[in-house]
Specification:
The chain is an alpha+beta fold. It is built from 3 helices and 3 strands, in the order H-E-E-E-H-H. It has a 3-stranded antiparallel sheet with strand order 1-2-3, with helices on both faces. Helix 2 packs across helix 3. The protein is globular, with a radius of gyration of 15 Å.
């Protein structure tokens, strides 16, 4: 079931970690709060990450973008917390610049190349 609030996100994250996962990141972008909270669970550590919700309808691919950023950035960092922090900062900027793209119709993608274009 989709977590309806941060309490449920934490419960689900703990359950996944208990199943043997090395690290779990619970995304909170689906919540309706002013912030988009994410929770990182690793053995012995729990950390909350937040970012202000961006007022855009162009959110297509946010989860895929975050997971790709995590995979690409992980070798640069010694821990998951620093990796998540940088990946979320990248995604935040991609969301903030999404309205500058003029691609297709309907809900558009986040702006993956916001740093260069």
């Amino acid at each position: 079931a989709v977590a309806a609030n941060e309490t449920e996100m934490r419960e689900q994250g703990e359950a996944l970690l208990a199943m043997g996962c090395g690290a779990v990141l619970m995304k909170g972008g689906h919540l309706s709060d002013e912030e988009s909270p994410d929770w990182l669970f690793v053995t012995g550590s729990r950390e909350r990450f937040t970012a202000p919700r961006v007022n855009t309808r162009h959110t297509h691919g946010t989860g895929c973008t975050l997971s790709a950023a995590l995979a690409a950035l992980r070798p640069r960092h010694h821990n998951w917390a620093d990796t998540v922090r940088e990946a979320k900062a990248y995604l935040q900027q991609a969301l903030m610049q999404a309205d500058s793209l003029e691609v297709g119709h309907g809900i558009g993608p986040v702006h993956h190349f916001h740093r260069w274009w």
